[in-house]
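Protein: Ribosome biogenesis regulatory protein
Species: Cottoperca gobio
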Amino acid sequence: MAACSVEELLVRAAQDEAEKLKSISVQKELELHFDIGNLLACDTNRVEVRDFREQKKEDFLRSLARDNTQLLINEIWKRPTERLEEAIVTKLPEPITALPREKPAPKPRAPTKWEEFAKLKGIQKKKKTNLVWDETAKDWKRRWGYKRAGDDTKEWLIEVPETADPHEDQFAKRSKAKTERVAKNEFNRLKNIARAQKVKLPGVGLTPTPQQSKEDLARAASVARTSTASAGRFQDRLPKEKPLKNTGKKRKFEPLIGNFSTEKQKQLELLKLMDGKRPKLNVTKAVNKQMREEDREEAAAKYKKRAGKKGRKGSMPGKAKGKTAKGGKSGGKAVVGGKRRGKTGKR
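Structure follows.
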């Protein structure tokens, strides 16, 4: 390998330095379209196919991106600048290009019940400061939350009201009231979310609802019946009242440790049933089935007999009632040989 001369090394170093320090002025046939608010530059110049083929693809694209970025930076620095601490900044204008969104714009949040009431009554929200003066601690404290001003849950002494039970724990009562307030606020928050999402709220317990179904009314009646001292054992049922579903007797399971003789007997009966060649005959079921078949056959025979009698009577329409034989008696006119005669009697 031939050694490089000093002149070649200097020329190469100069080329590398010039490559690093390219001029900030870039010449383009057509000016770029800039949207400074979005830091966007659109290049509409024609790409030379010869340059693209002669150079490497990556080098050509890197050079093109560098030139366009330089033009965008030059356009940014044309705007008025100011010094902020140790940096020079410029204020970007509003964007003019509408960029597409991946997802649709979020819908406005549905107002809560309080917001609807405040709008109806004209109540305007007033901004309050986060800190208030606490007279007891003689210091500024938060208005809400942890270590707030006027926190009565930290008091070591509570005066018992005159109308309250003297043996009632006032600290536990105050703590319970706070827990109920927190639960109520959380419940209202969840209801607002469900109402905004248009989700049907389920009934809580047995509270009255605008439209109650049969199941709800039956469940309410069942709860009212079993709320007596005897758990509804001696409570009379309403007329045409059906028992509530899924409220029967619970299944009872044998204990894990108990009488092993009973368990042994059950297992032997099960093995005997499985080992038997002939199926087990249920005598009661077989007798009932035989009796039903006999009753069915007897009813069918009676029906056929009754139908035969009706058919014979209907096949002789000219036959009169009573005895119609010759010389017989009849309550009306007798018909003999097709001739009509008067009432029979003595001549």
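Remarks: The longest strand covers residues 81-84.
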